[in-house]
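Show me any protein, keeping tokens residue-aligned.
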Amino acid sequence: MATVVAAGFVDFEITWRKDVFGGAPQAGSAENFGTLGINFRARKTTDEEELAAALAAWSCEISNGTGEDGERERV
């Protein structure tokens, strides 16, 4: 979902999901990874403020692994 928001879309919603690989020759492989088929919908943001708000909701702090004092960076 974060990828969809990063592309400028909001109001992401999964409208349908199904095990589309059930009964297929490689169904076991798909099942091991929890693979499902989905349909989704989203809409393009109307302005930059709406996009910024959506992106802010997906940002988080992570350790950047370079700071001796446990520095964090926002991504």
Summary: The first strand starts at residue 9 and ends at 18.
